[in-house]
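tool_call: predict_structure(chain=1)
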Amino acid sequence: MYLGLLSIEPGQQGNGLGRKLMDAAEEFAVKAGCVAMDLRTISQRKDIQPFYEHLGYTATGMSPIPAEIPMAVPGHFIHMSKSLARAKGAP
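tool_result:
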């Protein structure tokens, strides 16, 4: 399953809400029969990759951000993935 566009209002970050949303998304994916969760972050946000790594995600690659997406600072996508079978005890 692919998870996209998850965000927490900056004033609410650090309160465990992101982890709760990720747990719910992973549980939904497991119930839907998915064996992995994929997502991507942007390289400009240096704080996001460590958050996902803490939840068990690993970087699997990079890709360019399409030129038609306006970016104030140049960067690229970082692709990440997590096995849900190992993470949630699914078959």
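agent: The CA atoms of residues 57 and 82 lie 5 Å apart. Proceeding to next step.
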